[in-house]
Amino acid sequence: MVDEALTSADDELSAIADDELLTIGAFAARSRLSPKALRLYDRRGLLAPAHVDDATGYRYYRAAQVERARLVGLLRRLDMPLARVAGVVQAEGLEAADRLDWYWAQVEARIAEQRALVAELRDRLCGGTAEMDARFTVETVDIPERAVLIESRRPLVEELPTWIPESLDRLEAVARECGGVAGDPYAVYHAEVPAGSEAGTEGPVEACVPVADEAAARAWAERHYDGPGTARVQVEPAGRLARTRIVGDRVTLALFVAAFEAVERWVEAAGLEIAGPGREVFFPERVTAGPQGPGCEVAYPVR
Question: H or E element: which one contains 107?
Fold first, then answer.
């Protein structure tokens, strides 16, 4: 049995003898990666060694694997998560390039958001709160009692631009089957939305669409309920909102947060009290067309 195992190991080595084998140290030097990184990439299925010695556990790599190793290393220099790296290196040609482009577009969008946030923070640190609030006109509006279709989730900040419009589109399609959409759709933020590894620690966020026929909506929800995250129906009582509109071709996170804070300060100055979580109200034209596009509203229930 031992002889058979040794013969099998010898056969394996002979099969790859024509392709130069490198120790992990030599391969690390040639690929410009550390042995620690190579072990991690092996565990994640990104770059498995060509041979692992059963007795010693030593890893050996083919020289032909150097190009893939260098590609992984360069992608990691872009701070690309390992799961995304795997998607790129496992694809080929144009598909791999498209995956790289998609990732980098997300990076640039995040940087643009952070740049706007830096400008907002700089104004705040320089004591410009009054000037910042002057950008927003706050008013109150009464809302009637109404039935609302709701879909909830605990998303990350970076997921919101995709999840909210997709959820509202789904709910509006249901509302049209149940007497029609009975008001502007909105999202309710029950807590600060986290980023990165803090997923699931706060929230949730609710995507909401007022619906005309409550009975039809409840019947639909009963037929299609499939656990948490699926649509449900809730009656929103009549009340009052303090709101302000944000206009522009792009609503940044910094502007969004500043608008909420402006409403909060206005509510306090007016002698009112915030009576519920903040919300973002959308208009039928959810994609703005220019600097004076419809944008959105941010609001708080007040009493």
Answer: helix 93-125
How far apart, in whole angstroms, are the C-alpha atoms of residue 296 and residue 253?
A: 13
* pLDDT score recorded for residue 67: 93
Q: What is the rounded distance in angstroms from the CA atom of residue 97 to the CA atom of residue 102? A: 9
Chain center to CA of 135: 28
The CATH number linked to 40 is 1.10.1660.10
Residues linked to residue 301 through DSSP beta bridges, in sequence order:
241
CB 51, CB 62: distance < 8 Å: no
Structure token digits, residue 215: 């009975």
Q: Are 202 and 154 in contact (CB under 8 A)?
A: yes
* Residue 114 within a domain: no
User: How far apart (Å, rounded) are the C-alpha atoms in residues 97 and 76?
Assistant: 15
Say if residues 236 and 182 touch (Cβ distance below 8 Å): no
Cα dihedral 109/115/121/123 (nearest 10): -130
CA distance linking residue 175 with residue 220, whole number of Å: 10
143 three-class SS: strand
Axis crossing angle, helix 93-125 with helix 253-269, rounded to the nearest 10: 30
CB 214 within 8 A of CB 147: yes
Q: Please check whether residue 134 is in contact with residue 123, taking contact to mean a CB–CB distance below 8 angstroms.
A: no
Name the domain count of the chain.
2
- What is the C-alpha to C-alpha distance for residues 37 and 43, in angstroms, rounded to an integer? 10
Q: Give how far the C-alpha of residue 71 lies from the chain's centroid of Cα atoms, to the nearest Å.
A: 26
**Percent of the chain having pLDDT more than 70?**
82
Which domain range does residue 155 map to? 138-302
Average pLDDT, the chain: 83
Query: CA 233, CA 101: separation in Å to the nearest integer?
Result: 40
